[in-house]
Amino acid sequence: MPPRPNGGVAQIEPPPPAEARRRLPPPTTARSVLSMGFGNKPTETPNPTPRPAPTYSKPTGPAVQELHDHDFDRFVMSGKPSFIEFYTTYCKYCVELEPTWKTIGENFAFASDRLMIGKCNVEKYKNIMTRFNIQEFPSMLYFDGRTENFIKCPYNPDLEYLQEFLEDKSGILRSDAPKSNGVQSNSVPPPINLSSKPTRNQVQAVQNRPAPTPPPTSGCLICRDFSGPDRVAAQHPRHSIPQTGDSTGYLAQVLCGPFSSATDKARAIFTWLHHNVAYDVDAFFGNRVKHVDPKDTIASGLAVCGGYAGVYTAIALKAGLEAVMVTGHGKGYGYKALQPGERCPPVDATGHAWNAVRIDGGEWKLLDACWGAGNVGNQVYNKKFTPSYFTMSNDDFGIKHFPSEHNHFFRSDGRIPTWEEYFVGPCGSEPLQLFGAVEDHGLSGTSFSPPQKRIPVNSNETIRFQFSKICEHWDHEKNGEGKPYPMILKINGVDGRKEDYVAFENNEFWYWVDVRAKDLGAPGQTVNCYAVTSVNGKDCRGLTRREYLNKKGKCGMGFGGVCCWELV
Question: If DSSP states are collapsed to H, E and C, what string results for 430-491?
């Protein structure tokens, strides 16, 4: 068993939680109330923007993939489940099954991004027959897409039986297939209703109508390459600014002048504040906070939240950007989540300040330059660049920020959350403890489940622990600090009598592991998620789950804390 994680794992102020991702990990074998949020409440923000209806185009390739020895492993270990028929050409039952197998492929082709149907001639590839101990033909095996483990389907040539077996194992139902949108089964379009033909004047009116304005978009800020503005921001330290003249105007020119993009200009100012302004802990804890002019903040290099927001606004406006200072409540230093039975306090949208700036596409973007520059712990300022306070969506931003003016939410759905909804939070109770390394690992702080801090263990439920990358197209090497570390869950065993370190499974986006509630430990203990950061003193980025399991208990390992839950 690996050594117990030592006290070197530091807890620092966590980044703000964000909204849960909609992309789904593999289904758990037993749904838990905890996997859906406290009290069975949804973990996502209520009333999300409706999703567009799915469309379906029939794949151009074969519905059933013929497999060979050179591509078999790539097919089976693709991350997607697969259902494979192993056949021989001389077997009459295999020949009889062929049209049925083809029909299965066609009926599940709508889910080709989640499930694959294949067949393999083991008469030709005897190495595969030996590897999986194929002794009867045809043999039909279901693979989970992540390991070589399989579930054998009892032989039955009935189409309905085979399809029900596949639905049961994969969780994908034929009824989930998108409808044909009214197209007739013979692919012949319905006749045109001549009475619906527009008049010449109606046609002309449509032709003269101005083209609609495309919706504003600035792309994915999380994965956008900001190396240009970040590099420029680092080239102009505070002490290099001319002592006489307009300091904010000078900074607007040198920080924003090199860029045509409003988004890049906004990012350069955000990053410059991280490098050059520190949080004034003496003024904050000494109760000596007062209004300071932006030029004086730049000269001293010290500010509280209002000073950061004021400097940001001043530079942005002189750079030609539209920007405003937003005031309200923030779940920062000193905030305490509601405990069980506590009532929500009265509305008090004061005590913090941040910014809204109009970026590419005309979008209003919320950002917090103060929290993005660092954090405060034990009355000491810790300088730490946290770009998520610039890149996160406005909806996610609102989980920890409540503006005094309702027109400063800038939510994607235009909705105005209530104070109680904001203060209680999306999971309906105190959230789990996230450590500062979450963002360093390229993980989304909103995707962690169970989302609440306390987990009851006296039940027969199976608990799904899961979280995801910060973005679907996030590349750990390109956007992050390198290949990802393997993730493990430290549990305590029945009644807390036997520690274990359980490895998370993962695909390109999700990490997950299912554990029986009673195996988590005893009330009063904690369950911890760690990154395995070293093996025998050497960095282990890129270590796979299988490699970790092979080394588990055989060598020394180092861990970094990601999050933890309390057992009740």
Answer: CECEECCHHHHCCECCCCCECCECEECCCCCCEEEEEEEECCCCCCCCCCCCCCCCCEEEEE
DSSP code string of 514-567: EEEGGGS--TT-EEEEEEEEEETTEE-TT--HHHHHHHTTTS-EEEEEEEEEEE
Provide the phi-psi class of 144: left if phi over 0, else alpha when psi is between -120 and 50, else beta.
alpha
Distance CA 428, CA 469 (A): 23
pLDDT tens for each residue of 300-329: 999 999 999 999 999 999 999 999 999 999
Q: Burial code of 170-197, b = ≥16 C-beta within 10 A, e = fewer?
A: bebeeeeeeeeeeeeeeeeeeeeeeeee
Contacts of residue 231, defined as CB under 8 A and 6 or more positions apart, other chains included, come to none
pLDDT of residue 186: 39
Q: Quote the CA–CA distance of 271 and 67 in Å, as a whole number.
A: 51
Mean pLDDT, rounded, of the chain = 83
Got the DSSP string for 290-331?
Answer: ----HHHHHHHTEE-HHHHHHHHHHHHHHTT--EEEEEEEE-
- For residue 138, give the nearest of 64, 62, 63 by alpha carbon: 64
CA distance 487 to 466: 11
| 477-520 tens-digit pLDDT | 988 889 999 999 999 999 999 999 999 999 989 999 999 999 99
Give the confidence band of 54 by pLDDT, cuts at 50, 70, 90.
very low
Amino acid identity for residue 20 in this structure: A
Cα 118 to chain centroid distance, Å, stands at 31
CA-nearest of 456, 452, 457 to 519 is: 457
User: Which residue carries 């009063």 as its tokens?
Assistant: 524
Helix H segments across 54-91? 72-76
């932006």: which residue's tokens? 294
Pairing outcome for strands 374-377 and 538-539: unpaired
Beta bridge partners of residue 361, listed in sequence order: none
- How would you classify the pairing of strands 150-153 and 139-143? antiparallel
Neighbours of 126 (CB within 10 A): 11
Cα separation, 240 vs 255, whole angstroms: 13
pTM (2 d.p.): 0.62
With residue 358 as reference, give the H or E element that holds it.
strand 352-358
List Cα–Cα distances, 428 to 34, 42, 161, 224, 565, in angstroms. Answer: 12, 9, 43, 33, 15
Burial of 217 (0-12, 13-18, 19+ CB in 10 A): exposed
Cβ-contact 34, 415 below 8 angstroms: no
Please report how many Cα atoms fall inside a 13 Å half-sphere around the Cα of residue 190, on the Cβ side: 6
Paired strand residues for 463: 515
